[in-house]
Amino acid sequence: MRTWTSAIKLLEVCRLFQDDQRIRFTFTVDRGSRFSAGVEELLARAEAHCTPWENVPELHYALAITASENIDFDHVSGPVLVLPHGVGFHKYVPDSGSAGTRLSGLIPSAALRSGRVLMAVSHPSQQKQLRDADPLTDGRTVLVGDPQFEQLLRSEPHREHYRAALGVADRKFVLVSSTWGKTSLIGRRPRLPAELLASLDYDSAAVGLVLHPNVWSRYRPFQIRAWFAAAQDAGLLLLPPERGWQAAIVAADVVVGDHGSVSLLAAATGRPLLLGTFGSEVVPGTSAELLGQHASRLTRDRPLRDQIDEAETQPWQQDLAERTFANPHGATAELHALVLRLTDLEPRPLELLRAPDPEPNPITPLAFTAYPEFTGPDFLTLHRFPRSVEEWRPDVERASTRLRHVVADESDDNLGRIGNATVLTRTALRPAPEDWCANALRLHPACTLAAAAVSDGCVARTRAGETFTVTGSADVAALASTLHACLATGREGGRPLSLRLGSVETTVVF
Prior knowledge:
This protein is α/β, with parallel strands linked by helices. About 30% of the residues lie in helices and about 20% in strands. The protein contains 19 helices and 21 strands. It is elongated, with a radius of gyration of 27 Å.
């Protein structure tokens, strides 16, 4: 393997041979790609056995499997199975050996002439495409299908499980996906995750981000997290490239993507898709070109919220699936059987696995701009937008502007957000909540209401010295914002109030 992308692919393939004690894996890294950084760490986290690349000629092995067409095939003896690391062969990429470009995924002619190399493909049209690109591929391809696509289909019944694991069960989940390079979504609209989080009501929608492994390898996780720090503070689900993106596709209500493989997979599984950008490196006549011709575009001249709400599945997506993925319910078994044939092993039953659970990393925003809106004497709708992405929030007038206020938690490390808060909260359950409220009002002159969480709601205090208890199942920030709106409109306490947060309704009493 040479890159994070190929390493992730091979680790996924190894799951097909769990509990088969006839097979032993060892991994080796052919360094030299600018996207090789992090491969050794990935294998170390997987606790995989590794062999130095220079020692490969001394090994005795039945089959070499790679998900990269750029390895030194002369360095590997015996049969080699090359797996695509994405969906098909739909991109032209820079050719390191010249100033031009090459077809991504196409094996060098010299390796094809050896007669030792087989290429797995997911559709008969790809076999024709490869023959047209290099006649030497004739007879060196084997039709398998795409196990990733099959796994997504197989995981559909577990959609609610994945949504719960991601913490988006009651919200519309918008998944942003980007390939790598200057023409990618993140290359052209790097602020889009923050713009979406700033445009969508926090309690109504959640946003996730899947970046191509090459982005993680090129810039490294520290830099990625730094670039998206404000978005993560606003609740962005930043999914690591080795785990969780498959579950996120199944969980998604809308996908915003580009010309990458995740967009193709999402569209083929029926997810409503919007293209934020589309690269010129797409190969004519491929499924990616079909995607670019038919998918709706996310434009800059209309509100993001409206475009997300209007996104829906289109009839062309079924045609895309049929033109891209042959053998949609048997690809995994076909790949499993192929590897056993190539290693002269007897067939054995295959355990089919669903997409692995994501490792959720949700961060609850610590500060909101809140817009309370009374829709009746006993009904309040609360719209909340995270303060960390406030600079990207569209300038949209709301009916409830009069009640607009900032609510922040004491644990926020951004002193500006705390200092500007009208309502200050303490989420942690600690003794003496009333004393904390009085002290918070003394320390923060802009604050007019302080609220501290208790087991069944919160205790709150105004600058005038009034103390209230608020009961309800919402978070302390929502309860405090509700109380602030009620006091601002002169509503008397003691009467139940129906509070709506997104699609969830709860009862609040103060």
